[in-house]
Amino acid sequence: MTQNKSTAGISIKNLGLSFGTTEVLKGVNLEIEPGEFFSFLGPSGSGKSTLLRAISGFGPDPTGSIKIGGEEVTGLPAWQRNVGMVFQSYALWPHMTIRKNVAFGLEERKVSSTEIDGRVDDALDLVGLKHLADRTPGQLSGGQQQRIALARTIVVEPRVLLLDEPLSNLDANLRVQMRRDILALQRELGLTTIFVTHDQEEANTISDRMAVLDKGIIQQIGTPVELYDQPQNRFVASFLGTANIIEGSITEGHFVAEKDFKIPVKTDLTGNIYLVIRPQSVTISETEVTENNRSYSLKGNIEYSEFLGETVRYSVLSNGHSILADESHLRGNKIVANGQDVWVEIEKDQILLLDR
Amino acid sequence: MTVKASSGFLSRSNFGPKALAILIALFLIMFLAVPVAKVFIVAFQDPSTGSFTLINFVDFFKTSLFRESFWNSFYVSSVSVVVASIIALPLAYFTSRFNFGGTVIIQTLGIVPLIMPPFVGAVAMQLLFGSNGSVNLLLDEHLGFTIPFMEGLNGVIFVQSIHYFPFILINLSAALANIDRSMEESALSLGSNGMRLFRRIVFPLSMPGYVAGASIVFIKVFDDLGTPLLLNVNNMLAPQAYLRISSVGISDPMGYVISVILVIFSLFAMWVAFLALRGKDYATTQKGGGGLMKRDMKPAEKFIAYAIVLFILAVVLSPHLALGLLSFGTIWSYSVLPDAYTLEHYAEVFSSAGDFIKNTLLYAGMAATIDVVIGTAIAYIVWRTKIKGRKILDYLAMSALAVPGVVLGIGYLRTFYQFDVPFKDIPLANYWLIIVIALAIRRLPYAMRACVAALQQVSVSLEEASESLGARKMTTVKRIVIPLMTGGILAGFVTSFATAAVELSATIMLVSSEADAPIAYGIYVFMQSAAGRGPGAALGILAVVIVALGTYVSNRIIQKANQKNAMSPDQH
Predict the structure, then answer these.
(1) Residues 57..86 of A with a Cβ closer than 8 Å to B: which?
(2) Helix (H) / strand (E) containing B69
(3) What is the second-level CATH architecture of the domain A242-355?
(4) Given an 8 Å threshold on Cβ–Cβ distance, is B569 in contact with A137?
(5) Mean pLDDT value of segment B297-316
(6) What span, in angstroms and rounded, lies between the C-alpha atoms of B113 and B313?
(7) Which helix (H) or strand (E) holds B537?
(8) Is residue A330 exposed (0-12), middle (13-18) or buried (19+ Cβ within 10 Å)?
(9) Do A93 and B475 touch (CB under 8 A)?
(10) Looking at beta carbons, which residues of chain B come within 8 Å of A152?
(11) β-sheet bridge partners, residue B45
């Protein structure tokens, strides 16, 4: 089962969806390649799960088009789509044994019973739980239930695999293990996969590419590194990682914000913009630093500090603006006291300017 | 494994549920809406000309017997609520406020009366508490006075309060148990205590539960036909309606006027309960919380509490005791206990009353089956489909709650007297099947609630998982939904069965020959004569056993289903 020939790409064009009068998805356009591991990342209420459910055939009828392997699926009921969905709650049927659960989809496909037995065994083997075949779901731990839910879905050889926050009900350690297992399984099967999550670490570690959603709109699509390094708007910049975002405008080669905040910048942008800088690109110094080739310097003082272990996060008040700076922490390093005057260095090539 | 969508597919997938919804709606309209509407129309119709008039209502209030019946019904219901509250309040107080060993007894008290419909024990109660009954004979002999427990309206009040107080106890206890300790503790830490805390926090939080329970008691007593009839108290509304129809005939408008009044009062009581509960979802318990602060009783308090609880227990069990004595006693008249004991009455019941038992099992079984089938279908249609107007089915089925048995019976007589049963030359109103339908309609709201609760336990994602693996809606219903609802559906069946088995008020109007009569009617007929009391009581004991078994079985099923659901992954 190394290279899956039947797996399919997904093409979504101008998709819209409403619950009553509330629009939850607006103008969604998306191309997912066959065999790709793709994530939908967004806060709760962003529409990511709704989009996934629309692909699998649940929820209100959307407008626009969803094609799986080139075939239009809007209007098809869920049971004719051959799309594998793994539910957040796992949705294992408590009145059936594990074997019955996994066999269900094959039975619906009128597969012969000898073939069903073999394929169920293979699927259970794949998730390493063949020995639990005759248990009922209630007797399994959360992680085991998760694996069975996966086995139940992949046994029918769906064209695509959809995972709706599959790790959210697991505890932290298991979550890390499980996401590695899911990725390994996906690579082994070569199955186009969409993974829905609100956890950026999960999305970053597992995805080939991902789409960030907010308010029913896809904000940006790209690889995890692209999205982090080159966010296209304020939402993406602030949702992925931590960022200092200052509202201001460009006047005479300077970025100018309220309260005399002013930094020289080189840009073609004009008018209202956001200045974005990650805290790890800001350093603080208790001795005076002047502007140099590498960085700008601002004077300020420490508002508060947060000790995070590997780093110390300082908030520095400079010309009426709070700027976060992460200093990596080594054993014995002192934490700069609140109220202390400091100089803030901002690395020039790490500054990102975004249109407002 | 992809199937091309045919254009008509979506409409076809909706066809089944839609057709089912229409069939159920027709059934409910024909056997609930139309008969009740008929009753209302006749009540507002001039008997000779057929035009709209209020003259029947004027006549009703001009007749002194009806005015008296009206006030008696109102009086009996109100006083029953008061007496039932007096019984229920201390019990609820003991369990919610104290670490009281008698809590188990109190919980039993909450169920025991409900397994025997009040009319069954009514006659037996006269032998225990009547003017020549055991208690008064003892009182007269030792203390020289008697208490008129069972004189006229007192008897109805006494019997009804004993039987219906659990509704107040259960609702009030639930309301009290739902008050989180933190509610009380935050009031304490803000400086409130004692009576003030009770008046400002505990009382308002438990009030909705009390009002809901009290309104149920009011309706039950107001609508009840069997108890006054068996106690020979005829100057109340429900018995008057029955007597007018059975003696004067189905064209006499007074029975219909009384029916309208009964329905209006039922609606009114339900409305009061609705107002009391609206927007007051006072379930304040959080995880790990649980109930008000409890303290241990002092020895003297414990003594008093046990005395009260045991006294109430004795009173509550007295109908069962009296019925048992009556069923085993030879002659019991002007004496504290029967003269001797015999099994003769049971022998007579089993030899001559076999038809009653057979009919009961058949009718209640059929009615309960209809109830769970319709209940499951409505639950699925309302909660799992998007069919327009689906809520109407729910409301229609629930509206049966506001229709007293007498009213439904009168409506059926009036509506179905003109319809002949196909291939048989008798009106539908006289055919035994109409009793089954009446029982099914009367019990439908309860069965439907059970089915809805069962369906709500089935998470939608369990169905979606099935569809996503290739199963159509019908297959999903058959393989996933129904199997997971089985426990709830069975519990609904058993409850419907047990309560339908002892229903009297609609049945009594619809039984046209004794060969078609169920057990409840049999008890009524036997109890009419002094000689029939023994066998009547034996039949009553039999009915109690059926209901008790039913209640026990349905509780077991619910417990089992809960255990199973607790293990299901969706509960994590």
Answers:
(1) 57-58, 71, 75-85
(2) helix B64-97
(3) Beta Barrel (2.40)
(4) yes
(5) 85
(6) 10
(7) helix B533-567
(8) exposed
(9) no
(10) 465, 469
(11) B52
At A209, is the secondary structure helix, strand, or coil? strand
> What does the DSSP 8-state code read for residue B205?
H
Distance CA A66, CA A165 (A): 21
With contacts defined as CB-CB under 8 Å, which chain B residues touch A120?
none
Return d(Cα B357, Cα B325) in angstroms, integer. 21
Identify each DSSP E strand in A54-97 by its residue range: 63-68, 71-72, 83-86
For CATH 2.40.50.140, the residue range(s) in chain A are 242-355
> Can you give the pTM of this predicted structure?
0.78
The domains located in chain B, with CATH, are: 78-342 (1.10.3720.10)
From residue B273, give the alpha-carbon distance in Å to each of B210, B214, B219, B278, B417: 9, 8, 11, 8, 36
H helix or E strand, kind and range, residue B237: helix B237-243
CATH class as words, domain A10-236: alpha beta
- Angle CA A81–A92–A169, to nearest 5: 105
Helices B533-567 and B482-500: crossing angle in degrees, nearest 10, is 160
Residues of chain A with CATH 3.40.50.300: 10-236
Among A80, A119, A196, which would you mutate to test the B interface (most chain B Cβ atoms within 10 Å of its Cβ)? A80
- One-letter amino acid at B314 equals A
ipTM for the whole complex = 0.79
- Residue B127: its pLDDT value, please? 82
Tens-place pLDDT, residues B24-41? 999 999 999 999 999 999
Distance CA B241, CA A235 (A): 72
B484 interaction partners in chain A (CB closer than 8 Å): 93-95
Please name every residue paired with A192 in a beta bridge, in sequence order, or none if there are none. A160
